[in-house]
Amino acid sequence: MLGMGKQEMWSVGERDTVIDALDRAVAAHPDRVLLDFSGELFTYAEVDRLSNAMAHSLSDAGVKRGDTVVSMLDNNVDAIISWLAVNKLRAVSVPINTALRGMFLQHQVADAGAEIVICETDYVERIADVSTELSSVRLVLHRGKAVACGSQGDIEFAPLDEYRGSDFSAFTDKPDPADLACIIYTSGTTGPSKGCMLSYNFMCSLARQQLRAGPATANDITITPLPLFHMNAICVGVISNIMVGARVAIVPRFSVSGFWPEVERSGATIASILGSMGWLLAQAEENESMKKCHGQIHTVRGNPFTEAAKSIWRERFGAKQVGGNGYGLTEACVVTSLPGGEYAAPGSSGKRIPEYDVRIVDDLDRELPANTPGEVVVRPLHPDVMFMGYWRRPEETLKLMRNMWFHSGDIGKFDDDGFFYFVDRKKDYLRRRGENISSFEMEAAFLKHEALAEVAVHAVPSDKGEDDVKVTAVLHANANLSEADLFHWSTNVVPYYALPRYIEFRDSLPKNPQGRVLKYLLRDEGKTATTWDLDDTDIQVKKR
Predict the structure, then answer these.
(1) Which of 108, 456, 500, 541 gives 20 to 30 Å between its CA and that of 440?
(2) 456 to 182, 189, 520: CA distances (angstroms)
(3) Global pTM?
(4) What are the beta bridge partners of residue 321?
């Protein structure tokens, strides 16, 4: 059954794994193209054979069922092959953000407890810099050009090419849908980032939900510039296409000027992007590829899309379905959405879907009536469609499962017709350009600057629909530091996506009687008259 007709391809509650889905696809159409990396094509059979070979080599290196393997890879075929290889061993994939460095990188690699890290050669130095704090890591496999260090301390550094293997035989011990497949780190708001434990079926369920919201067939080609260390790219970009026997064109990175030429080259019919990318593309200058591809993209997946952005995509680019109209989170997948083509009330994020029970409650967990904002709580109605808890943090898992409901920390409401509306975040975290940013980790990083006595990192609403980062700080007495100097210093301390747009120095920070900073006041004040704004400077920020 390749493609989806008027009836859904799967029944609600069906359980699956990506390994089984790939096996079915290879048996049905081995020579069909699955992956397109800038014109470098890989068939279903090739992806299967390459991942088998790497799995055998990783097994020889000691990887076994239940082991964690960290990857820090750019958008290339090895990010897919290594992920599948790890899963074929029933081991646990831990993809981490390629922008991590310093304490951010150290925490996630150490917390995962992995013995093996697979990374780009460009990131080897970052890992070497924190190697003394990585007690579990024994082998770093680097992809790309050779590096000088063969070993450092107890860690060996070796080329990934040596682990591609030549044994292409299949594995008969396949994972179960309920097995732990992946750990995705989400931002910490009152502590370090936590690892969300996700089952195979969780990931397949997310892919199925996206296909229900934006149907695809074997004739479709999905294009995505989203990073392969994100669930979106893996589940929406790769697993969903495996399920329908389609192709995915994975772009190395997002580029406004390069997007439409790549759509033209790849023949893409579906775009999987973030809403903020959609707005930038909607405002872009016209080019020849854009004109040639009018109407070629029939479906655009991504959140959040404003109504204005949706209208532009329909009228300017000829897209029929724009935006996912869904609400979700790493722990609970997508819990409100709509089947493709159904009416969505303006500003809403769809309705409850069959996999989840979603309620709005007050601080005592009493359900609130329609049109009343409160905390969003969720529980599964089918097996293995929610996270399995936080890695190595059972107490924090139980804390959010009060009264047997997962408490999202988000504020939302349902209207009288059952449409859901996201209102605000109860938790103190930030989201910028699709990345969750831990204020706790940001503040710890900025406090390493000798001139800063106190720091509060918080969100300021962005005109692009997400958050901009603001650092509000108190200087030590007699310290001499400019906002621009602090910004330049931070470029070597925090990931590029977390760099602050705003910086403000104050004599003190607003606090409650217990001494906690009242960040909601800082958020409400936003950009004040004394706030330094990166957008008012000529400083250029480079991704790294």
Answers:
(1) 541
(2) 32, 12, 11
(3) 0.83
(4) 299
